[in-house]
Amino acid sequence: MSKEEKIVIASALICQVLVIFAIIILGNMYFPIPDWIMKIYAGGMITVFIVIIRHHSMKK
User: b/e map of 21-37 (b: 16 or more CB within 10 Å)?
Assistant: First the structure.
């Protein structure tokens, strides 16, 4: 994987984490978010990240 690809993936992950925290913090202020929704969202992000890594490692 090239340096640029690593930077893109890292920045995308950081953005996702920030979005998740923002949703949790703002959501809990106004209306409580069910735990299972957050678990599905976090699980989906992890799955996407694994798929991206697999895709990049297979390209070589």
Answer: eeeeeeeeeeeeeeeee
Q: Do 57 and 1 form a contact (C-beta atoms < 8 A)?
A: yes
The two three-digit tokens of residue 48, written as one number: 């996407």
Tell whether pTM > 0.70: no
Q: How far apart are CA 26 and CA 44, in angstroms?
A: 21
Domain boundaries, the chain: 3-59
Contact 59, 2 (CB under 8 A): no
| pLDDT tens-digit series, residues 47-60 | 887 887 787 777 76
Of residues 60, 40, 42, 55, the one with CA closest to residue 9: 55
